[in-house]
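Quick question about two entries, pasted in order.
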Amino acid sequence: MSKLVVLERTKLYEEVWAEPVRTVAKRYGISDTTLRKHCKDLNVPLPPRGYWVKIAAGKHPRRAALTKLKKGESDRKVYRSYPVYRRPQPEGLEAAVPVPVDGEIVVPDVLEEPHRLVARTARRLSAKRHKDLSGCLNIDVSEGSRDRALRIMDALLKAMDRAGLKVEATTIEAKVEWPSYGWQRQEPPPPRQVTRVCCDEEWIEFSLSERMKRVEDPKPDPPKNASSYYYQRTTYSHLPTGELSLRLENIDYLGIRRVWSDATRQRVEGCLTTFVANLSKVALAIRLDREERAREAAAAAEAALCREQEEHRRYLDQKRLDQLRRDVEQRRAAEGIRAYIAAADRLLRCHDNASPEAIKLRWQIKWAAAYANRIDPLAAVSQRLKQCEEAEE
């Protein structure tokens, strides 16, 4: 269910200067980035970097004053907040033992004696022609960040080898996302190039990529004879930012951390130790999720079987009910015919003669009696019961 959120400018100013933005954002049920955007819209100043460190040290830094609003600006913001579904972590992750890492993983400044997969990837990426990336690491970075990415991967793979983990760069068959229909021809998807590590008998895929920034290309001047309706298509270029992200690929919606990115206060190089130690937790989450899916599939199959049995029982009941109704109607019709025959017999006793009408009525009585026995369901049952009694005698 959505809820209506009202942000008042004065109240929000007091809250963000009394507690960190992240704490205030949790109270409103939104992210800190969203709250910063709301503060910008309401022209609410935020504490600068290092403000809370000075507060913790016992200092009293100066607050930024809340400026007056200009004419036409609002002092409140109303919006509707919709809850975001976040899958909870599988139960039992506390039992995961971190992967033993021999000290802090340090990324060297110069790539020396690289790992075999790093050396192969470096050779393939440096080749200008015929770039066959089969068997290479899953690295998607610009040329300016290539050396740094290779050094990060080299330190990461060597740490995994020291921890006894198996690392490989291989090709696996891609899964078909949507089924094909008779009228639709679907080509099989190409195989995927993945880099994965085996931890506790679970394969965990990971990659290293660079964030790209989309920039609008400048539009050329229109031709001199162009009309007022002249349209120029907007094109964009994607420029590398140098910000790298170490990402786990095959643990979507497991409720655990899957991305380590460059930020203001952290670099990917400083997250490698945590990344390797966290692999056992990731492997346990994958196994628990697979077992949970298996239990859900078994429960769904059992429920489907119960529904099928119930539907079959209802079908048989309806079939028997329809037959019973037909038998009742035929029995009622047979009883009506027999009542007619009895009345006709009484009439013939009163008028016993050989007239054509009497002959016709006697023939009709004979035929009606046979027809009544033929449509009466109990007559056939009575006949079979008599046959069984004669057989027993």
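Here is the second entry:
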Amino acid sequence: MNSLPAKIFAERLRRADRLYGTLIVSPSPHWVPVVASLGLDFVFIDTEHIPLDREKLAWMCQAYRAVGLPPIVRITSPDPYEACVALDGGAVGIVAPYVETPEQVRELVGAVKKRPLKGRTLARHLAGEPLDSDLQAYVEKRAAPRTLIVNIESAPALAALDEILAVDGLDGVLIGPHDLSCSLGVPENYEHPTFLAACDTIITKARARGLGAGAHVTYQANRSAHEERWARLGANLIVHAADIILFAEGIRRDVGDLKARLSDCAQGRDATINI
């Protein structure tokens, strides 16, 4: 397993370098060299919303690591066992969805940063019991290339943000705009002052603690403007749209323009493409 992408990603995230990536939905092997040529710093693989089995996930992680693109995997739930599965498959970092409490973060730290500790040994250590020096050094060395990122995407998470950010072992936060807007009572209203203020607060507080921060912006309206807004506030984890979204937008635009130039729209043909 190529450990270099993991080491580089972890170091750059902790240095607060801006890291650019996109969500990859397609598991096609032909996609890997194309994505590798785009100048990205990482790929985001989502198992929460995309039906990927364990074998396919591992294949994608290994393939992207082999071309020097660190795979960051969002697991299906904030479950430490799910985190271990993704790491075993080759994930460089874990994104845990819908985290709302510091206790959830501590459990995830145990899975991501304390491996191979398990069971009672892990529980006692997370409760404050120190490890023998040799074991401590071993755990720290193994943890260094791995990153733990949690999704902040609800009003309860926002209320507990200071406690969440204070958990030792957390590396960054990623805003989930859709769920956050819904939880704040302004569903998909990404220009609402309440939504924008919440995102600004998350980014600012995370960066003040030296943690990575960003948002996964999938909506089309003002996407680039919002990414720039948060980058200027210090966001350094830029997850831009997704392969399937950009494909749909590009084909709809280009074919729509072609139909308009050929006057096919005037003939009553639908110029839109639905997915």
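Reply: Confidence is low (pLDDT under 50) at residues 267-275. The beta strands are 19-23, 42-46, 71-74, 93-96, 147-152, 172-175, 212-217, 237-242. Hope that helps.
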